[in-house]
Amino acid sequence: MDLTIRPRRLRKGEILRKMVRETRMDPSSLIYPMFVREGEGIAEEIPTMPGQYRYSVDRMGEKLDRLKEAGVSSVILFGIPGYKDETGSGAWAEDGIVQKALRRMKKDFPQMYAITDVCMCEYTSHGHCGVLCGHEVDNDKTLELLSKTALSHVQAGADMVAPSDMMDGRVRAIRETLDQAGFQMTPILSYAVKYASGFYGPFRDAAGSAPAFGDRKGYQMDYHNSREGIKEALLDVEEGADLVMVKPAMTYLDLVAKVKEAVKVPVAAYSVSGEYAMIKAGAALGYIEEDKMICETAVSAYRAGCDLYLTYYAEEIAGFMKEGRIG
């Protein structure tokens, strides 16, 4: 057959396939979500997330060592406090769990880049992401608490803060607070496009952050909406976000691509707990090959346009990159 154009020419042999690969990945773009809790000598497996653990501060180094060896240099910390109250005051306490973890991490692993999740849901007795007025979250009153929390994290050693609450105006409030305190160079990674998703269940189990009543649809986004996601991302950049995130990743890759086109800052995608649990469960049942699914879902996020990838499989993905299986 007389064919001038033969796409298969560029698929002949592993060296050529890698040479012309359109999507490039590197371990430096991976961020590992880490749960830290009060107590000592604790590394407890999370039932709904097999292979993932809640660590006490004195044992978090075990995982950080493995991440460092794999080439993963960034983590995002989620705190599980020893007490909760109506306002979530443990979130900004000087002796709060994240603050203690940051100080320990910076002492023992100064080369690791520490990002902190800034939200109230793990710390409030009602499990919602801010101050309540009746059964509704009071947006503007919550901004002050989020700003106090972000500042306390940076003072304890955080390199970057990541507000995940989805309150209107929180990026501006945090930016102004950090700037006034002399932390003009601390970047903000905004959970800009965060949907009210069914994929968060295992995380809420891990962090003990399920709402005591109702749901979070009044502040997290309706998953039917796409243009709204672009609006949220652009607003957060205007308010001072240095990076923006789309969450979840797997079922929102269209948003990753659209946000990438719309903004001029780095875009992150968060492969959330439900995505992790689905792969783990399918592999445990023998229905799928775990390694292949890890690689394919990760590449799909980068192919869609993400620059940073938050994933519980960060250590494994970094290994696959070193092996040349992906990247």
Automatic annotation (TrEMBL):
Top-level division of the source organism's lineage: Bacteria
One term of GO molecular function: zinc ion binding
Cellular component, GO annotation: cytosol
Binding site for 5-aminolevulinate 1: 204, 216
SUPFAM superfamilies membership: Aldolase
List of residues binding Zn(2+): 119, 121, 129
EC number: 4.2.1.24
Residues that hold Mg(2+) according to the record: 232
GO biological process: heme biosynthetic process
Claim: NADP is one of the keywords in the record: no
Keywords for the protein's UniProt record, in alphabetical order: Heme biosynthesis, Lyase, Magnesium, Metal-binding, Porphyrin biosynthesis, Zinc
Pathway info: Porphyrin-containing compound metabolism; protoporphyrin-IX biosynthesis; coproporphyrinogen-III from 5-aminolevulinate: step 1/4
Active site: 194 (schiff-base intermediate with substrate), 247 (schiff-base intermediate with substrate)
Cofactor entry: Zn(2+)
Family statement: Belongs to the ALAD family.
Subunit structure, as described in the record: Homooctamer.
Function: Catalyzes an early step in the biosynthesis of tetrapyrroles. Binds two molecules of 5-aminolevulinate per subunit, each at a distinct site, and catalyzes their condensation to form porphobilinogen.
Protein name (record): Delta-aminolevulinic acid dehydratase
GN (gene name): hemB
